Automatic annotation (TrEMBL):
Alphabetized Pfam families for the sequence: LRR_1, LRR_8, LRRNT_2
Single GO cellular component term: membrane
Record gene name: ERL2_3
GO molecular-function terms, A-Z: kinase activity
Alphabetic keyword roster: Glycoprotein, Kinase, Leucine-rich repeat, Membrane, Receptor, Repeat, Signal, Transferase, Transmembrane, Transmembrane helix
Organism the protein comes from: Anthurium amnicola
GO biological process, one term: post-embryonic development
Name under which the protein is recorded: LRR receptor-like serine/threonine-protein kinase ERL2
Compartment(s) where it occurs, according to its Swiss-Prot or TrEMBL record: Membrane
Amino acid sequence: MEKKHTHMAAAAVALLWVLIPAASALRSEGRALMSLKASFSNVANVLLDWNAVSASGNIIRGGGAEEEHCSWRGVICDNLTFAVVSLNLSNLNLGGEISPAIGDLKSLQYIDLKGNHLTGQIPDEIGDCTSLKYLDLSGNSLYGDIPFSISKLKRIEELILKNNQLTGPIPSTLSQIPNLKTLDLAMNQLTGDIPRLIYWNEVLQYLGLRGNSLTGTLSPDMCQLTGLWYFDLRGNNISGTIPDSIGNCTSFEILDISYNQITGEIPFNIGFLQVATLSLQGNLLTGKIPEVVGLMQALAVLDLSENELSGTIPPILGNLSYTGKLYLHGNKFTGRIPPELGNMSKLSYLQVNDNELEGTIPSELGKLEELFELNLANNNLEGPIPHNISSCTALNQFNVHGNCLNGSIPLEFQKLQSLTYLNFSSNNFTGLIPVELGRIINLDTLDLSDNDFSGRIPDSLGDLEHLLELNLSKNSISGPIPAEFGNLRSIQIIDMSHNMISGLIPEELGQLQNIDSL
């Protein structure tokens, strides 16, 4: 019997040796959480259940269990050890800073503090959370360098620091994180080159670097990212040319290198990409669009706008049957708009404005049943508007400003009930303003200025109750201002200057409460 008691005593002592450190660790985590709370500035109404802990680690309010903190808002603990494994305090407007005590939460696997208006620097102690798999500090006002200690987080898979005010270089040691799948540093003030070692991470799937001040060139090593599907460098200061090896980046689904200082021609090998989005907008690219781009069948978005590209628009682009957005505006393209573009059955946005295109508007564009925006402005197009454009019944915006188009406005345009923006300005249109325009009831902008329209202003324009802007200036319009204009309750701007309008201003216009300019 005595021997049995001896064994029981020994077992009890052994259990104490296990429980005492565990209890001590729990008290330490409670204190760490309270230190975090103390470093935030707006906790009064959002962390009410985070109760105070005494210097000895005992809870003063809300019960005395060691694992009390496991029930606090945003805290998740391990079911067996009661160690904190997840901390989610996102979008609580906490303010303040991140306490270095975060590093005392050794078992943390998940931290989400996004959208809290936090300031200060990311504490070096974050690198002590060695179990961490997910870290999101985005949407705050954190500043300073990205701490090198983050590279100690060997288990981390997602590192999201976007939308802060972080400065300095991207730490090259981030390449030493073996399981990193998502690296999002977008919308900060980071400088310097992209560390080349980053490109040798075969696990990385998402690389978001847009909206920084990164310099250097596009490395030929970028295609070593064999697992990467999202590569976004938009809005930096990257220079040099697009590497000829770009076609080897076969895992890429989204490639956005827009708004940089990239020069040279678009390499032929780009046609080997299997991307859904290719955005080269806002660079200094020259030369022609490679014909092979028309074979990139996976493309949903092709944006080559705001460069210095020249030559003609390749008719083979009409083969892009899955492309929904085609942006070619702001270049130096010449020649005609290819009729083959009418074969792009999924096209919803077509912008070829601000080029040097000539010829007529191809009637084949009328086959684009899903077209939402058609912008042909500021070219040298001539001839009439094809009547079958009215078959594009999803059309919301139609802009042919600044061309040499002539003829009259097709009466069939009254079918375009989804139109909100209609701009025929600065052309050579003639004839009467159609009464039928008053039936496009969702219009908010109607600009017919700087043409040669004649006759009276149709009363039916007064039915456009959503109209915000009406510009009929610089025409040969005569007769009175319709009293029905008093029904344009939303109107803000009416310009009828430089016409031959006669009569008095109708008193009904005095009912227009929102008008800024008449």
